[in-house]
């Protein structure tokens, strides 16, 4: 086998090995898409309030002037984190908040629905038919690594999933490792590192599919990331390879 044949063989092997990685790209590969299917959702549990959460508590009643003492102005459109500190109830290190009329109340460990019901029962002493709304207003997740728009994202919905967060970040780049997404979560004084495989539909049953406040999602790039970013390097490599082939062919023709 001459040098030209050897070179072409190596080049073909390289091209086929590059194309073979496509099988790692699609999500949920073990999902049967040939027919509709359904399954029960049993891995979701409501988010529990914890220290450092900031709560929006809105109370309305038949006496709006009186119940207005609970209500901070809305900060829904604000992008300044300090606005949330000034316009919500901060849960302290002991899991407590301090409310008008009610005083100090332990809220950590409760869901927003449970706190809403508890507050309504308490406020029946002061108001007739009070309506209470509770929301965690500083819920956010960090998405970084090999995604289109790495950032810290505010969550408007307590039932946000890892796939929704990745969508907010513009989805994974083509060079990202879909089998090795790392979810970082602090819980009960411990930091956990959980591997998530987006190529399997088992993610839908994972206890980590639904996100919690301050979760971090790291998307690891594969080995082709550098070549993808440095397009000039790739083009130069292809040009040099082409020139080498031409040089070998010409050399054999005029030998």
TrEMBL record:
Q: Organism, per UniProt?
A: Mucilaginibacter robiniae
Annotated membrane-spanning segments are 233-254
Ordered alphabetically, the record's keywords are: Membrane, Signal, Transmembrane, Transmembrane helix
Q: Which domain of life is it from?
A: Bacteria
Tell me where in this chain the Polysaccharide export protein N-terminal domain is found. Answer: 45-136
Which Pfam family is one of this chain's hits? Poly_export
Start and end residues of each Soluble ligand binding domain: 141-190
Q: What is this protein called?
A: Polysaccharide export protein
Cite a single GO MF annotation.
Answer: polysaccharide transmembrane transporter activity
